[in-house]
Description:
Layout: E1 3-5, E2 12-14, E3 18-19, H1 32-44, E4 49-51, H2 60-70, E5 77-82, H3 95-109, E6 116-120, H4 130-141, E7 148-151, H5 155-162, E8 167-173, H6 185-192, E9 195-199, H7 222-225, H8 243-253, H9 263-272, E10 277-280, H10 287-294, H11 304-322
Parallel strand pairs: 3-4, 4-5, 5-6, 6-7, 7-8, 8-9, 9-10
Antiparallel strand pairs: 1-2
Helix pairs in contact: 1-2, 1-10, 2-3, 5-6, 8-11
Amino acid sequence: MEMRVLGRTGRRVGVVGLGAWQLGADWGEVEEDQALRVLSAAVDAGVTFIDTADVYGDGRSEQLIGRFLKAGGTGITVATKMGRRVPQRPEHYTLDAFRDWTDRSRTNLGVDRLDLVQLHCPPTPVYSTDAVFDALDTLVEEGRIAAYGVSVETRAEALTAIARPGVATVQIILNMFRLGPLQEVLPAAREAGVGIIARVPLASGLLSGRYDGNTTFDANDHRTFNRQGQAFDVGETFSGVDFATGLEAVQRLAPLVPTGSTMAQFALRWIIDQPGVSVVIPGARTPDQARANAAAADQPALTSEALEAVTEVYDDLIAPQVADRW
């Protein structure tokens, strides 16, 4: 698999990683043995970067990754996130809290030092608070973490974070339904040497091409309970796109998929081809999904005609719903 430098961490990671939200919660049930098989399949397929968070299953995702690492997983960079287990108020983002949160993640993952810790979509004022980033620098100095980054909801938050000298990475939603970051965020990150972690790459599965108007999801799946943003930012579910509109867009995109690729691989390849992207982190609930996602790295770069067609679909159908918000 192609390797890229993960921003200011200096680490080299495979361009397709694994998002481990599915292994924790909010996507229906995933048994522990199956979760471990997903991790194994991804790493066997060339994945060297796994993204998780302390809130995924209240630590379950981290614990499963820790079990996998203890069983012999090597050469893997694990990024976790912190901050969403408390009410979202800026005053909660303190050095003492960061120590507590990272200690818990270190225990869950079974490591002395965390490879990368990201603030998990904190309140917007946090990005402009010097004391927050001084505290993160302290964690690095104390050896609790090797590097830190941020996970953001908006382009403005991303640009504010990129300007911080200690920020190693920015994680942002980027997919064929989210073209906004291409104009400013990715160029700014490239110039600053900040890594871009592309999350929600398949728009919560819409861009897999497997859904239709009759598709339903489990009650404990965020694609059921968060469609209007009842639990967290609605942009995390189907990238904020109305489900029916997303299906229509996928129908228009499907003829662009090259022979030998799946719709999901086409969508992942589109992200890989964007200058400035360090790693894309699709999730997987089965080993086959993990292997298929990793194989997107082996697909040829998309043609200019395909890239232009994606932009046309976005402009026609998706931009009216998301362009001004994210």
